[in-house]
């Protein structure tokens, strides 16, 4: 009896694994920048942000609930309405919580490792090498998807142009929400060297 129950459980696990070895790419289409409630304009440069940390928003954009592993994605949209080129460096962006703790962006590749399908488990409980390849392909597709949505590492935004992308932050297990945090985005005027800072207060729970 125990053997039969065990066999059924293994079969169900196998079916579940095989069915989950995929990744659905969902488009991330930003709105016109004036449509965002969370935005600020400095020296003719408008920066907006939209937290995607809730389960519903994360699944809509990335298929998975990134908060399960304590990650909080934030969509950043910038429009240069000035007459100069503006430099935006992703790694200089900071998320400052209400206690003053500062977090830096986490690369999409690093985050994706936490969500990858277990290829060996698929091989052992699925269909051998074919199941292994299925999980490997799903992992690759997921990494490429999340990388494509990430804010560029370095971007010079010329006048009358926009840039958008997601910045990923790791808050830790159970801390995927963003109550009373400030997203600090430093910018630089390429011609004058003048530095600006856009601070966006996030109150999403």
What labels would you give this structure?
single chain; 205 residues; alpha+beta; six-stranded antiparallel beta sheet; four-stranded antiparallel beta sheet; 5 helices; 30% helix; globular; disordered N terminus
| Average pLDDT level | 82
- Helical stretch tally: 5
The gyration radius over C-alpha positions equals 21 Å
Counting DSSP E segments of at least 2 residues, the number of strands comes to 10
Report, as a whole number of angstroms, the end-to-end distance: 48 Å
Give the DSSP E fraction (strand runs of 2 or more residues).
25-35%
Largest sheet properties: 6 strands, antiparallel
Unreliable sequence segments: 1-20, 118-130
The helix content, as a percent range, equals 25-40%
Q: Characterize the quaternary organization of these chains.
A: single chain
Going by helix content, strand content and strand pairing, the class is alpha+beta
């Amino acid at each position: 009896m125990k053997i039969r129950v065990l066999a059924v459980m293994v079969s169900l696990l196998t079916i579940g694994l095989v069915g989950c070895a995929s990744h659905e790419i969902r488009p991330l289409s930003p709105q016109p920048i004036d449509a965002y409630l969370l935005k600020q304009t400095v020296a003719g440069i408008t920066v907006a942000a939209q937290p995607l940390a809730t389960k519903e928003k994360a699944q809509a954009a990335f298929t998975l609930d990134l908060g399960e592993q304590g990650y909080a994605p934030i969509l950043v949209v910038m429009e240069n309405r000035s007459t100069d080129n503006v430099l935006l460096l992703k790694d200089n962006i900071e998320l400052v919580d209400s206690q003053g703790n500062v977090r830096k962006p986490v690369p999409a590749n690093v985050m994706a490792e936490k969500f990858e399908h277990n290829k060996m488990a698929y091989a052992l409980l699925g269909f051998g090498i074919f199941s292994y390849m299925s999980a490997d392909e799903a992992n690759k597709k997921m990494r490429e998807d999340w990388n494509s949505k990430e804010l560029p590492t370095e971007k010079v935004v010329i006048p009358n142009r926009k840039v958008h992308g997601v910045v990923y932050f790791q808050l830790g297990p159970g801390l995927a929400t963003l109550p009373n945090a400030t997203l600090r985005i430093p910018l630089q005027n390429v011609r004058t060297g003048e530095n600006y800072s856009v601070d966006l207060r996030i109150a999403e729970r």
